[in-house]
Amino acid sequence: MHPSKLINVFLLMIIPASSFGQVPDFESNFTDEDSLESEVINNQLFHNYDFIFSYTGGSYWTRKKSNVHIIGLKNDKWFYTNIIKEFNENDNFETDSIPSSTTVKKHKLSKRIVKKLLNEFTQNRLWELGNDSLNIYEKKMPDGTSSAYIVTDGPTYKFELITPSKCRTVFSYHPRYYLEAIPEVYTRQNFINCMDAIRKLIINKYQH
Prior knowledge:
Elements: H1 6-12, H2 32-37, H3 39-42, E1 51-58, E2 65-74, E3 77-86, E4 101-109, H4 111-123, H5 131-134, E5 138-140, E6 146-148, E7 156-162, E8 167-173, H6 175-181, H7 187-206
């Protein structure tokens, strides 16, 4: 099935996100472009789980290696899957579409750890954060003008929330830099808190 058609499959289902207990209900915002770029959808990992949230981060400088962190719920059990793909690059600095190597590691997670992580997400309103506000690059000046902060080739970090009925993506470009440059956009701090939580509670513990 073409990835752009998968959203219709999800939306035909009627299982609310709240059915999974600790996961609050949230609004779908996936576009066809999001589905084409989603590692979870492209690898058809949603077939294996009732609920998934994934975390990725990358930039031009890390284009030869993708690192996807997936936490999934199946039959009341939680699992962490780390998928690392490496890509060759030609003389024009273009990477191949097919990876040269793929490494998959899977670990069972305790409900206690996942509950703690989901509580962090809920406290920081990950389920509600808007991509527009997370990607504001202009600062309002005292004289009423605006000053744009432009940084190229910085990292973009992204969370994806996927149930059989809904898909949501939440992403921010170079959030730590822009939080320092434009601190009044406080939602970036919420996003960074979620990044730090998943790294501390899951990724740093299992990724070697």
